[in-house]
Amino acid sequence: MKLYAISDLHVGQPDNRAALQTLPRHPDDWLIVAGDIGDTVEQITWALDLLVSRFAQVLWTPGNHDLWTLPRPGFPALAGEALYRHLVEICRQRGVLTPEDPFVRWPGPGGAYVLAPTFTLYDYSFRPDHIAVDQAVQWAEEAGIVCTDEHLLHPTPYPSRAAWCRQRCAYTEARLDTLVPADPIVLINHYPLHQDHARLPLIPRFMPWCGTRLTEHWPRRFNIQVVVHGHLHIRNTIYRDGVRFEEVSLGYPRQWDRHRPLTSYLREILPGQ
Q: How does pLDDT run across 26-49, given as a tens digit for each residue?
């Protein structure tokens, strides 16, 4: 029995969708999907149906693409919190665990970890210190970088994405506070917790859309042993202050080898090395 993780499946890409269909059954294993399954509710639903047929248990947290609003005739134009809650309900109908469900304890080998899916969003605080937070987007635009979220990820009913992020971080901290301090945690989030981990060599000014400084103290405050995230499309393992950080993105077709089976992109989280 193993706990695997992957993110950024982007099944709206035909190659990614085809690759996901080749995934063999893992009847005893659990899978973390750390956001960005697709760009529409239909894509996300299709992928979840496939994944729950392949794994004993699936855990999900939303990425920014999952929360895009792409209005089309005949489909409700859900946005913001309403869209998120709709996706949570779709997950619950399929037995998929979400950031709104009770944290569960890993029943397999490798230790009695608590698995904690979280949803924090971002607040533009990932930026150089000399750039004011309210100037971070302008700083990115000066290099020709504008995240599509600015047009498609709506914070409704919150006044801004930053306000939604603050609410989500406060909610998540309160939930983590309820855990027994001695219990080791696998924290699952779409975004990296540390600004230092949000380094994108090809598009360095994309940083403002990559997380929030509100989460940087969490590994010190809580007994977090492993952090699973995606978003960056830069697969790696980083150790910081004794915590293992796993970036588990698949990414767009140009970012992965289509000659390799998709199973080779499943990161083993537990039991682990």
A: 999 999 999 999 999 999 999 999
Contact by Cβ (8 Å): 125, 131 = no
pTM over 0.90: yes
What is the DSSP code string of 172-209?
A: HHHHHTTS-TTS-EEEE-SS-S-GGG---SS-GGGGGG
53 token code pair: 């047929």
If one looks up domain 3-270 in CATH, what number appears? 3.60.21.10
CA distance 7 to 231: 8
Judge contact between 262 and 19, C-beta under 8 A: yes
Q: How far is residue 184 from each of residues 79, 223, 245, measured CA to CA in Å? A: 35, 5, 14
Kindly compute the dihedral angle of the four CA atoms of residues 113, 46, 161, 215, in this order, to the nearest 10 degrees.
Answer: 10
How far apart, in whole angstroms, are the C-alpha atoms of residue 265 and residue 4? 10
- Look at residue 75 and tell me whether its pLDDT is greater than 70: no
- Strand segments (E) across the chain: 3-6, 26-33, 55-60, 104-105, 114-117, 185-188, 224-229, 236-240, 243-247, 267-270
The whole-angstrom distance between residue 71's C-alpha and the CA centroid of its chain comes to 23
CA 225 to chain centre: 17
- Provide the b/e sequence for 98-121 (b: ≥16 CB within 10 Å): bbeeebeebeeebeebbbbbbbbb
- pLDDT by residue (tens digit) across 179-203? 999 999 999 999 999 999 999 999 9
In whole angstroms, what is the distance from residue 224 CA to residue 172 CA? 13
Which residue type occupies 266? L
